[in-house]
Batch of 4 targets.
Target 1
Amino acid sequence: MKVLIVEDEPKTGDYLRQGLSEAGFVVELARTGTDGLHLGLTGDYDLMILDVMLPGIEGWAVLETLRRAGKDTPALFLTARDEVEDRVKGLELGADDYLVKPFAFAELLARVRTVLRRGRSGSEPTTLAVADLELDLLRRRAVRAGHRIDLTAKEFSLLELLMRRQGEVLPRSLIASQVWDMNFDSDTNVIEVAVRRLRSKVDDPFDPRLIRTVRGMGYVLEAPEAD
């Protein structure tokens, strides 16, 4: 999936590009409304993330011009302005969603996936499965071997990340940025504690175990190979 970000604030733009790239998206970043409009008109994107206040051309005008040109690419606005009138204006111009700064990356990622799923008429899977473990993304439920597993919001997000990237070793830094929306110091054991608690619910009562520690690298969730 290809995403266009139009954001003039360097830190926010780089943060979004890195986070979405690590989540598996192909990302292009424009720093001005003029560049964003050009890319939006000439490129083929699955989603646009637009700041409202941009140099050159503001986000409202970028989207309005794209819609008049027949571009129906889904759009999500980012802005520090939380007035009802601003939200209504964005939606009337053809935006699909509206997120107020400051925001948590986990919420942004959830909204991005919701907009994309809506745009593809529900073609994105709503469940994930590895071995006998199933995750219902709509009902936010986890089931293993027919048994319901009660998870906290963070545990669910951690398990979703591991299952979406099954078979891939995920470093602690990536898990911290995707699930907790922050960077943890290398000596912080928050990730280890969270994985241990998740294992106690998802792995310990069942066989085989799915979550594995790769020493010095991170964690991976995968079904064991059949003998």
Target 2
Amino acid sequence: MVTLRSATLEDAPLLAELWQDIARRTGPEDVVADMAAVVAAAQECERQRIVVAEYDGQFAGAVHLERTTMSAINLEPVVRALSPHVLTPFRRHGIGTALMDAAVTWAEEHGIGHVATAAVAGSRDANRFMARIALGPYATLRVAATHAVRARLSLHRRPATTGNPRQVTQVLAARRSLRRSRAGVQG
């Protein structure tokens, strides 16, 4: 039997294990401390909630809910169901459905017309589940290390924009001369 409840600080070690693939890469003690901070923040903020699912009294999964906007630009209200995860032994027992039902119920209670979620890109099962319950793609969140993006951006810079302003003027003058000479040949 599936039961749902709000997360408590005692759930932090279990949440650290559940969300280890999406938590920051650090030691286990730090991840547990991070999860304790996340639970504490959710308990203090009326716009956030962590729902824990238990199956026959055992911790089976969780989801982090937040009432927010579609994006910083699109101010349409949405309940974001972040990281709805179910522990492997408890999959296919209705736990994922119960967690997403909690998100929909919370949205309805607050008059919010949309629910959004994010599934790990490589998780075929999670993405298929989300598609089955009517959640389609809206955006793709891409992430990279800052230094990696800086290195790639540096490769894409055009020399004329980073060089001497006189050099730009010379390039433009050469292009104009070339166009005039081509126009004279064709005429």
Target 3
Amino acid sequence: MQLSVLAAIGIRTTFDRGAELLGIDPGRTFRAKLDDLRDQGFIGETERDSLQLMTEAGNASAHRGWRPTDEQLETMLQLIESFIHRNFILRHDVSNLRGAIPARPQRRP
């Protein structure tokens, strides 16, 4: 039994929840959420375009019964994994690294 439609919808929903956790208004459209994420520095323009395509694919599965191939679903998974990794996991690791680096010593005149 293949569940590609359900998986595509789940990926879209994961993005939606991630955006909300980053402080984006959940009542906004996906396009507006993507713009907000870009404007607030969470994603760049290229990633915004890729994530828009990913959310459109999830919408097509949810509302038009589109069934992504395994390869298409893998692309969607890679996009959401990258978004999650950079904004939730790596962001925390970067904060820890920043706090671990000692300050530069004062230069002598």
Target 4
Amino acid sequence: MNFVTSFLYRVCEWIMRLAYVNILWIAFSFVGLLVSGVFPATIAMFSVVRKWLMDQPDTPIFKTFWQSYKKEFFKGNVIGWIFVAIGYVLYIQNYVIMFSNDPLIQISKYAFFLLVLLFSLVALYLFPTYVHYNVRLYQVVKNSFLIVIINPINNIIMILGLVLFYYIFLIIPQLAVFFGGSVIAYIIMWSCYQSFLNIDKKKKGRLVSK
């Protein structure tokens, strides 16, 4: 009975933590009127989740979130909107490929789709790499790319986890309101953190964690 009680307590505790972080993420995104708030709020959320994965479950959530939100507000928006701009360019290019009858363009679509896949994976690694390593913005992108290339298994695990919870949220959309952001952040950060640990063990690169 003590084991069951302890287990249920831990489950409820994690449910509350995830819900709390998700509420903070939504609230602080709107504090910045979404346009300037969503990226620093996302970085702050990943910062909290990273602390949990580093065996620091008692980290003060609001304090950690708020400090990260303030500190990374400008740089978070810079790197976030750069990737949004790149994504928009790829979206336009995809539109052109889909409706073009040019044989050369049609041949190039396979390489383009590979580029889109690579860009999407790098984007998933972007914020975890940003909060974990103390490097410049351009190095965040470079390191995200390198980590994607050398850790294919973790990429697959991440994608499977995201697909699973995507369908769960489709079946029970109410869960997305309370856990959509935080659960996705946890899945991504957990997968990325395993990659970071593998890199540290193999001593690849000269990355310095925060």
